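Is this the right way to post structure tokens for a design question? Let me know if I should format differently. Anyway, here goes:
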């Protein structure tokens, strides 16, 4: 396919664009930029600097209370003043968008094939399978017939990208497009984005914390500066002492035994977990890595009691747990908490951050109602958020801020075992290190155990006692 030459007409243009809330909170500092056809521009900056807000402004989809000023033109239209019907037509026909929490954009009742065909433009000649393959999702194992719960977070992100491309957009807006993906897949997506820009003339604006992705495909990067980012704390230069590998069945700890999960039937039966065994000793830190789509998130959901159709058993301190979290005792629910990869789909949009944290504090953490306000403030401080975040709602937060709220909610129950699913993938490096140092401190202070799923091997090396690889449905221990 011949390359499409860039034109002088910008696909996206911001002039002194600023977005604030009525209380004076700045969601996006005054920003000006121009993105032309066939260019890839990366937006960088600390979590909360306004990267996601700029993408939402380009969609004309800011929070109801937001007060934008300045101008933003998308494909020749001022979206801040565009009539609602024209704005909807622009989104449906000329703009593709993949948010930071793509799972929240996928209808759980639809198959993957239906999700892609739903957004197809009338002129689209590619089939759903071809678009999925373009996004590095081959359908040989029946993936097109699965639903959202049966695909990993990284696969959900690529399905959302296929949906966006089905529109044949002229402008593609991507919020952390490779978050939660392994290095090989990240590099493959980088090549895809470069080809989309060069060969199809699509203008791409992406938020990104990954310098390798920016170097490999972006034409330029623009750093947004919101509030002053936290100073980076160096990653630990040595690992904690190695724990001896257990020889016999442990009496204490959280253990998965012969866990099996299957999706589909007959020739399309897919087994992401095949007799998986894993032990998390008390006060330990265990790393879990492996290629995208191999079942790491699924295993954490099984341990947390959120995927009850699994086979096998979960044991806590020698006692067998119910596979359904609702059937576990309140103490058992408190002791095992999950920080999911997609916090937007896990946070109630109608509840403020304060109300979200108050519920586990009182229900599971035993906090008196008179002490809730102070406890909420302390939790927010622990995860690097200001106290006034308590009055805000999920839609008013950046992706990184929502991730930190999700961590705070898990910590509110004072857990003994914290299951963390790619909790730093949506954070800038400095904030990610700060969060991991916070968890390391809590582990030392409370004796809390940590099970960390991550593709960032430097974090796994620095913050865990031992690491395991999940691949082809089975777990093997690896040397750090």
């Amino acid at each position: 396919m011949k390359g499409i030459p860039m034109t002088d007409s910008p696909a996206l243009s911001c002039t002194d664009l600023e977005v604030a809330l009525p209380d004076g909170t700045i969601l996006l500092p005054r920003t000006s930029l121009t993105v032309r056809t066939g260019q890839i521009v990366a937006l960088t900056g600390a979590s909360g600097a306004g990267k996601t807000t700029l993408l939402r402004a380009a969609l004309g989809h800011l929070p109801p209370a937001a007060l934008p000023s300045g101008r933003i033109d998308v494909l020749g239209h001022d979206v801040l003043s565009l009539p609602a019907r024209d704005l909807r037509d622009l989104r449906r026909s000329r703009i593709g968008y993949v948010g930071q929490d793509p799972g929240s954009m996928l209808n759980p009742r639809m198959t993957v094939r239906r999700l892609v065909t739903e957004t197809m433009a009338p002129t689209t000649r590619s089939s759903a399978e071809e678009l999925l393959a373009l996004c590095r999702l081959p359908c040989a194992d029946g993936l097109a017939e699965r639903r959202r719960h049966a695909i990993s977070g990284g696969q959900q992100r690529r399905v959302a990208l296929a949906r966006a491309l089905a529109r044949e957009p002229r402008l593609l807006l991507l919020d952390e497009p490779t978050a939660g993906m392994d290095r090989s897949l990240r590099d493959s997506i980088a090549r895809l984005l470069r080809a989309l820009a060069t060969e199809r003339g699509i203008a791409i604006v992406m938020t990104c914390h990954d310098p390798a992705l920016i170097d490999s495909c972006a034409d330029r990067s623009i750093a947004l500066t919101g509030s002053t980012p936290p100073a980076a704390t160096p990653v630990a230069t040595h690992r904690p002492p190695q724990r001896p590998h257990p020889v016999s069945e442990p009496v204490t700890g959280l253990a998965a035994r012969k866990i099996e999960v299957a999706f589909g039937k007959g020739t399309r039966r897919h087994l992401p977990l095949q007799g998986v065994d894993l032990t998390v000793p008390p006060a330990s830190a265990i790393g879990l890595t492996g290629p995208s789509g191999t079942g790491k998130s699924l295993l954490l959901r099984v341990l947390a009691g959120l995927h009850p159709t699994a086979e096998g058993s979960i044991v806590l301190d020698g006692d067998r747990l119910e596979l359904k979290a609702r059937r576990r005792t309140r103490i058992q629910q408190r002791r095992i908490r999950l920080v999911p990869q997609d916090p937007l789909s896990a946070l109630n949009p109608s509840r403020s951050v304060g109300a979200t944290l108050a519920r586990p504090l009182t229900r599971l953490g035993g906090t008196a109602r008179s002490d809730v306000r102070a406890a909420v403030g302390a939790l927010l401080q622990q995860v690097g958020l200001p106290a006034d975040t308590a009055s805000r709602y999920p839609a008013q937060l950046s992706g990184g801020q929502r991730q930190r709220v999700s961590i705070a909610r898990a910590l509110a129950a004072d857990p003994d075992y914290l299951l963390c699913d790619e909790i730093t993938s949506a954070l800038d490096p400095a904030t990610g290190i700060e969060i991991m140092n916070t968890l390391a401190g809590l582990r030392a202070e409370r004796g809390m155990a940590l099970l960390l799923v991550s593709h960032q091997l430097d974090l796994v090396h620095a913050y865990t006692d031992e690491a395991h690889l999940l691949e082809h449905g089975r777990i093997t221990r690896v040397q750090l």
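Format looks fine. Someone answered above. Worth noting: The CA atoms of residues 263 and 270 lie 5 Å apart. The chain has 15 helices and 19 strands.
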